[in-house]
Write a structure and sequence with these properties.
disordered N terminus, 2 domains, 320 residues, alpha/beta, Spore Coat Polysaccharide Biosynthesis Protein SpsA, Chain A, binds magnesium ion, binds guanosine-5'-triphosphate, 11 helices
Length: 320
């Protein structure tokens, strides 16, 4: 686990010898209760950083308060956290990016630990993980369940050992900002970022941060069921897209097993009597085995296409 660094140490240890340009990016939708505190606390920790609030048509005083506290405000017309993050990647140029929610649930004091591995070149993305230190009320029980499920699935499918996939507190470098395509529009964006980082073999580090409740009067934008479903659906789609051989191979295995189950009787018929009496089951078995074969071929084909794309992506990244 990376060690804590002070800002003075950070200034002295940039990989290029120059002071890194840090941008703190805060997606906000109706966060008037907390945006001021978040801007102030990050300004205190990182006095030289650009602090930018990304606003999606907030109907409250978020924009005014953010400006009063000295933050830049960028308006994103497309609603949803995913669209905001795509906008951040497109519009902000910095050496180190810090992404944090505007609801004052993540501590600014830990930002040095978060950015140190990025500044030192030891990690491309550092995630502030919350699971070990949440208070009973800051995580709703179903969210804990959803978080565990997503974490288990991502670790299983992508052979990783991450502890929090959905954290909104992250630091990352220019490589990540330039290399990760963001197509999610909503809260599934963190899952997409993490999976892309794993797929592209970026170095991901984790730093445990305490997580606190939203203060009184501040309202969550997350809908447990619809957003939970979108996260799981995204995971499923990315599994199919990034691991086609495993995905279609599993489907093929399932078809094959069902085919064997269905075709066993007709084969026994043939061995015993020299004739197949259970014709419908024989037809079903043939269909299932053919489907399995089709599925595995599709997996191999998509895997080969993916591989070529990855090569091209690497070459483009090298030139860019
Ligand atoms: N700009 C913008 N920000 C958004 C949008 N939806 C959510 N956010 C911001 O994204 C951050 C995370 O949203 P939250 O509602 O706190 O979601 P969460 O942290 O996953 O859920 P909680 O545990 O309930 O806090 C907050 O700063 C929101 O203001 C949106 O449509 N546009
Ligand atoms: Mg939150």
């Amino acid at each position: 686990m990376p060690q804590t660094s002070t800002s003075a140490e950070l200034e002295a240890t940039t990989s290029t010898g120059t002071k890194p340009r840090i941008a703190v990016l805060i997606p906000c939708y109706n966060e008037e209760a907390t945006v001021g505190v978040v801007v102030d606390s990050f300004r205190k920790e990182l006095p030289d950083a650009r602090i930018i609030v990304f606003n999606n048509r907030s109907k409250d005083a978020t924009v005014r308060i953010a400006r009063e506290h000295g933050a830049e405000v960028i308006h994103e017309p497309r609603p949803g956290k995913g669209n905001v993050i795509a906008g951040m990647f497109e519009s902000v140029d910095a050496d180190v990016y810090v992404m944090v929610d505007g609801d004052d649930t993540y501590p600014a004091e830990n930002v040095h630990e978060l950015i140190a591995p990025v500044v030192d070149g030891m990690a491309d993305m550092v995630v502030g993980t919350r699971l070990q230190e949440f208070t009973d009320t800051s995580f709703r029980p179903l969210h804990v369940l959803g978080n565990n499920l997503v974490r288990w699935l991502v670790n299983f499918i992508f052979r990783a050992k991450l502890t929090d996939i959905l954290s909104g507190y992250r630091a990352y470098n220019r490589r990540v900002a330039a290399g990760i395509p963001v197509v999610s529009s909503g809260f599934e964006v963190e899952t997409e970022m993490t999976i892309n980082a794993l797929y592209l073999r970026y170095e991901i580090a984790e730093v445990v941060v305490p997580y606190r409740e939203r203060p009184e009067g501040s309202v969550s934008k997350l809908n447990t069921f619809s957003d939970g479903f979108r996260v799981l659906w995204k995971l499923f789609s990315l599994f199919r897209a990034y691991k086609p051989l495993a995905f279609f191979g599993l489907l093929a295995l399932l078809c094959l097993l069902l085919g064997i189950w269905s075709g066993w009787g007709p084969v026994v018929d043939y061995i015993r009597h020299g004739y197949v009496y259970r014709v419908p089951r024989a037809v079903l078995a043939t269909g299932l085995v053919l489907l399995g074969a089709g599925s595995v071929f599709l997996g191999i084909l998509l895997h080969a296409v993916n591989w070529r794309f990855k090569e091209i992506q690497n070459l483009v990244a090298r030139r860019g």
